[in-house]
Amino acid sequence: MEKIKFLSEKDNANLIRFMKTLPPPDVIRLTEASDLKLYSLWNAEIKNAEERGLDIPSDLFFANTIPLLDCRVEIDERDHSKNIGHIIKFRVCIFPNYADEIDRLAEMPDVAHNIGFVCAEHESSKQNFSTMHPIYVTKYSEGISTDCDVLGYIGMKELQRSSFANNTPKDIILAFVSNLLSTWYGIQIALLHPQVREVFRNPRTVIDKPAPQSGKNRKKRPVRYVKEHVLNADDLDRIIYGDGEDGEKRRINRRALVWYVIGHWRTQKNGKKVFVQPYWKGALRELKQALPEREREIAQAI
User: Taking the CA of residue 11 as centre, how many other CA atoms within 13 Å lie in the half-sphere pointing to its CB?
Assistant: First the structure.
């Protein structure tokens, strides 16, 4: 099993210091149902979290269109009737200068550039800690990526890091972080949609309550306030599908708001083959069409 590695204590301390310089992130509170509603905005074929793939589009970065650079997300997956489930907590932070990093891709098209991180919280009966996973984009890749080669951490001593690296399969962590990023991407798409973004219009102002710090050097922080958005499945249903004239919800089989049709050959009635250029379809196609042209490898018949 390929082992996970962690940043040196010095580099990790620098990353944590950088995080503290950033403004407090918005808080997005979801249920399992509203999480899947957001996910269906860009991938309507997926019905549950277990079916999610690992490919999350990177085009919003190349369009320089990230509505919410820093947010903390909480997904309540508890079933109180059965007393099972838990709350998933994580933060996705895109660096404020990510667009400058994207500009450098023209000179280094094959190099993966770190443009942010996912901070995933892990809770157990014995300890609470967080792992920080870098986010990468590459010019010729359609999706964003993350890896477990070198992770940051919060609240983990050396022995705990060693145990985590030895007992946690790398592919399990990658799949977990990919699921977190798919929720984050759904939030960004919702904020770009002219109707769905209305659910974010009136956030509550609450006291920031980050994950508790451990260790002797923890300090009392000054009180900070954050914007809190509570999204439920019923509100998303109402905005996405609307109501019919009789007050009942319209039954519409919607696809994703935007998807990419790859180039393909079409045979006409006279037998002549014509190549159809790739194009975007869906309600947000104009956003994608405004992107700079990116090279894509397309297999063409001879």
Answer: 8
